[in-house]
């Protein structure tokens, strides 16, 4: 098969109006090969939208899965973020976290569902995020279980606040979660300090399993980098689609 078909993509850029954030939020929507608006599609919502496309190569990955592995086509929604306020929006103790979560569930979701033929049932939505993007994705699932029961976490920053949030739940049997963490992620430098992400993910794993979460947890040699996550993304997407 000609490799060129993997790199063809249709990406539509939109601005989502919001009452919860300071300004409209840019998003990019990748339509699958053979897109037909009379059909309906599962939808993948990615935090750090620009990074998922540029460094995660999610559009190319999706095309390969569709053409080579007969995975059902999906629409990908990348939600862009201003890196200067990313921690405030994505970290549970951040000043903008509550507003961002409300924007995501109450404004972004209806915006996409009104304009694109995405399936609007909870088991046809997937949240995906790396690092703090994994954090906010998990919190969205915990806070809006009727909307987001499926999460992909690439080296999620599951630190103290997130572990406490998981511990507050009694039954997570409804939650399908794929967690990836690198064994070399023991000293990850962030705006908030240096953390042992490996230990944090192991602790979160115990809490999730104790609450019957449908969890697939993987530790692999790797650092806190897109080069590591990009290699693992195809298998994680395939498991949900």
TrEMBL record:
Pfam families (alphabetical): Esterase
Keyword set includes Transferase: no
InterPro entries xref list: AB_hydrolase_fold (IPR029058), Esterase-like (IPR000801), Mycobacterial_A85_antigen (IPR050583)
MF-aspect GO terms: hydrolase activity
Keywords: Hydrolase
PANTHER family assigned to the protein according to its UniProt record, in alphabetical order: ENTEROCHELIN ESTERASE-RELATED (PTHR48098), IRON(III) ENTEROBACTIN ESTERASE (PTHR48098:SF3)
Protein name as catalogued: Alpha/beta hydrolase-fold protein
């Amino acid at each position: 098969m000609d490799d060129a078909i993997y790199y063809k993509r249709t990406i539509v850029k939109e601005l989502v109006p919001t009452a919860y954030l300071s300004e409209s939020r840019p998003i990019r929507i990748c339509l699958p090969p053979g897109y037909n608006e009379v059909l309906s599609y599962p939808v993948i919502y990615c935090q750090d939208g620009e990074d998922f496309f540029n460094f995660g190569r999610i559009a190319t990955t999706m095309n390969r899965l569709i053409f080579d592995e007969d995975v059902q086509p999906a629409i990908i929604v990348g939600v862009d973020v201003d890196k200067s306020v990313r921690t405030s929006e994505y970290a549970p103790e951040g000043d903008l976290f509550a507003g961002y979560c409300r924007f995501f569930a109450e404004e972004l979701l209806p915006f996409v569902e009104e304009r694109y033929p995405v399936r609007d049932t909870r088991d046809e939505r997937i949240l995906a995020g790396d690092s703090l993007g994994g954090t906010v994705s998990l919190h969205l699932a915990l806070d809006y279980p009727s909307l987001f029961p499926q999460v992909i976490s690439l080296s999620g920053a599951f630190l103290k606040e997130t572990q406490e949030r998981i511990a507050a739940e009694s039954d997570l049997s409804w939650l399908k979660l794929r967690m990836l963490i690198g064994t070399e992620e023991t000293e990850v430098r962030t705006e908030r300090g240096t953390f042992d992400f490996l230990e944090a993910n192991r602790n979160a794993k115990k809490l999730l399993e104790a609450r019957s979460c449908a969890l697939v947890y993987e530790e692999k040699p790797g650092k806190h980098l897109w080069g590591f996550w990009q290699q693992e993304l195809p298998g994680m997407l395939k498991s949900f689609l």
